Structure formats: C-alpha cells, structure tokens
TrEMBL record:
Keywords: Pyridoxal phosphate. Residues 1-22 are annotated as: Disordered. This is dTDP-4-amino-4,6-dideoxygalactose transaminase. The keyword Ligase does not apply.
Length: 415
C-alpha cells in the first residue's frame, strides 16, 4: 500500500504490518481491571473468615448500589447474563411474548428472552449513537409485544424518554439493559432509573468488576419479590409464606422454578470495594475518551459515536466508525494492522440475530413489517466498527500508544 497524504495530518511512520517497528514492545490488552490493595484486602478478609456464600457484604453491596442509583431495591446476582434473565422475568416476560431489542448488544440480551420462551424482535438503530431507534420501535409493535429493552450501547444512554412514552402509550414494559452503562447519565438521572427493571454487569471488563456478577434494580415492590424468589432457586424460607407450614423450623420449600443465581461473598466484597472508586474510574474514562476525541478530530476516515445533548456516556470502550470509502483497506486489515502494532482492539457487536443460533432454532426473529435484513443500518454499520481500549488501568503512555498506532495505520491506508 502507498502512504496516504492528508492536509494537516502528520505522518507517523511506516506501520509494523508494512515492515516498520511496532508502536509498543509489549502488547497492550484490550481491557484490564483496575485492582489495588483495597480490593485485595477485601477479598482476603472473606477468605480468612471462611464464609464464601452470600452474606453481609453482598447485602451491603446491594444497599450501596441502590443508594447510588437512587432506586428502592437492588438484587445482586452471579453474572450480567443472570441479571438480564432475572430482569426480564421479574418484569413479567413470559412464553410467546414478543420483546423488542436492539441488534447492537451483548448476545445475552437475546438469549435471556429465549430462556423465558419469548420471542426477540430486533429493531434497527440510530446511525449516530447506535442505540435503538424509537420511531422504528413503534412500527414493530404488535398485539403480542410485551416489552421494549433499552440497551445503552457502549455506555451511551439511548433515547430513553421517547421509549418511555412509547411504553406508556402502548401499555408495554420498559426494561433497561445497562450492562455497559454503570455511571451513564441521561438528563441528570442515572441509567437504570427508567425501566420497571434494569440489569447491570460486573464482569472483568466492566466499569467496576466483581470478577463476574451482576445487579438488577427496580422501584417496584412486586418485581423485587419475584427477583428474590427467582434468583434463589424459587426457595421460600419465611414461615409466613410457607404452604407446608407445619413441617418444622428446618423447613424451606420451592414455590417457583427459579435459578441458583446467587453471588458469592467474594463477589460482594470485591464489588463493594470497587464501587467506592466508581467516581474515580468514570473520571479517568472520560479523560481518555476526551483525549481520543482530540487526537482523531483531524482524521477524515473515522467517526466517533455522537454524544447526545444532556447525556454522559460511561465509556466502557471507545467505538470508531471507519469511513471505508476513504481507505485502501477493510475493517479486517485495519484490525490486523493494529494488532501488529501490539495494540489489542475489538469489534462490538455482530448484530445479535446474525449469530447462527437464530437460524438454527427455525425462527430468525426478524422485524415483521419489513422485507430483507431486519436491521439494514446495523448490518451496514457493523462492517465499519472498530473498538479501542479504554480503561482506568491504562497509563497516559498507553493512551498515546493507541493514538499513535491508530493514526499510523489509518494514514498509511488512506486514499
């Protein structure tokens, strides 16, 4: 490939894939949790005590999380997928219901609908923010539609008020997929504050981590009771609620088909320690995102996601849309070139319904009112997406290495 020339852009040298020296001597991981001695001590204290099952630290984690979000209830679970499953169940999703989803989300958002015997219906996205388009949501509401899932893609708050209005107008449930959006803000309110239930994730690459884990929040007392039952194997222990009340003081009974989604005390301890640093983590993510914005502003071959007025993203990672018409390379070549610079990058996400599962189950769960691809914008944009590392454990030098690598590769492949 020839060297690209763009007015106002400084040539950063020959990329490694073309024979130059890599930007880094060692590989920069795509993500890495920010762990300190406080986190280590919190986990070690649990190990020393010897109680590993959910206990007081899990309860405190739930209470602190609810206070942070400004909601009445929070229920900790073992994973983000478990959080989505429980959030759908507690909201009232059941067999044969249709649930409207964004195609740009973790595959778990669709799987959790299928777990309940319901039908996912995928609706296209806004081309600037890559969150679900409310106008298209309304076009796909049928008599079987029970809920809309508001996925805050890449930590960007979706048009949640418009979705609330649609849900109210059509008597639908609104559920938030906030698994990537802890700390995101929409018009002064935290993401997770708008739906009947909302799901969060604490996986290794999360805004805060518990190693794994998740949380479901709600302001609805009935939803909270169902959450407790569902995530604890459907077990009832309170003597006031027992059917076989005369069995004895040891007695508990199963009253619902629940799941063992309880977190461990280790997860509660680590999550609690991490939650205390959330403000610091978010500030560092904002700082890195701002540096990326500044560094790529003069590159005509990339476009970041647009931040809507009145919103603050959580920045779990940084998404670029490549302008492939201006490049002598496709996304795969750009991806491999950055790996050659020893920068791990990613792609978020393959539209959920394109995973083979949806063909194999005999129902592609496509939008029922359109012919052709159910989400043509998402499919077209997906081919252009590239995700850069963005996490608090990155040093300033790491950030500059990413910038140098991206600029070097894109300028080299520029037309």
């Amino acid at each position: 490939m020839r060297q690209g020339k763009t007015e106002g852009v400084t040539e950063p040298g020959l990329p490694a894939i073309a024979g130059g020296e890599p930007v880094r001597e060692t590989q920069l991981p795509f993500s890495r949790p920010h762990l300190d001695e406080c986190d280590v001590e919190a986990v070690v204290a649990v190990l020393r005590e010897g109680r590993l099952a959910a206990g007081p630290r899990v309860r405190e984690f739930e209470e602190r999380f609810a206070q942070l979000l400004g909601v009445r209830y929070a229920v900790a679970v073992s994973s983000g997928t478990a959080a989505l499953h429980a959030a759908y169940y507690a909201a009232g999703i059941s067999r044969e219901d249709e649930v409207i989803l964004s195609p740009f989300a973790s595959p778990a958002t669709g799987s959790a609908v299928l777990y309940l015997g319901a039908r996912p219906v995928f609706v296209d996205v806004d081309a600037e923010t890559l969150t679900i388009d409310p106008a298209l949501v309304e076009m796909n509401i049928t008599e079987k539609t029970r809920a809309v899932v508001a996925t805050h893609f890449a930590g960007f708050p979706c048009a949640i008020e418009a979705l609330q209005e649609l849900a109210c107008k059509h008597n639908l449930l609104l559920i938030e997929d906030a698994t990537e959006a802890l700390g995101a803000v929409y018009r002064g309110r935290q993401a997770g504050n708008f739906g009947v239930t909302a799901a969060f994730s604490f996986h290794q690459d999360g805004i805060v981590t518990a190693g794994s884990g998740g949380m479901v929040v709600t302001n609805d007392e009935d939803a909270y009771r169902w959450l407790r039952l569902f995530t604890d194997q459907g077990v009832v222990r309170d003597v006031r609620d027992l059917v076989l009340a005369g069995e004895g003081p040891w007695h508990y009974e199963v009253q619902e088909l629940g799941y063992d989604y309880r977190p461990t005390e280790l997860q509660g301890a680590l999550g609690l320690a991490q939650l205390g640093k959330l403000a610091t983590f978010l500030a560092r993510r904002q700082e890195i995102a701002a540096r990326y914005h500044e560094a790529f502003a003069d590159l005509p071959y990339v476009e970041p996601l647009k931040v809507r007025p009145g919103t603050v993203p959580a920045w779990p990672f940084y998404v670029l849309k490549l302008d492939l018409e201006r490049l002598h390379a496709d996304r795969r070549q750009i991806f491999l070139a950055l790996l050659s610079e020893r920068i791990r990058v990613g792609v978020h996400y393959l539209p959920v319904y394109l995973h083979p599962l949806y063909g194999w189950i005999g129902d592609p769960t496509v939008c029922t009112l359109h012919e052709g691809p159910p989400c043509p914008k998402a499919e077209a944009i997906y081919k252009r997406l590239l995700t850069l590392p963005l996490y608090p454990a990155m040093t300033d030098a790491d950030v500059e290495d990413v910038i140098r690598a991206v600029r070097r590769v894109l300028i080299y492949f520029a037309k």
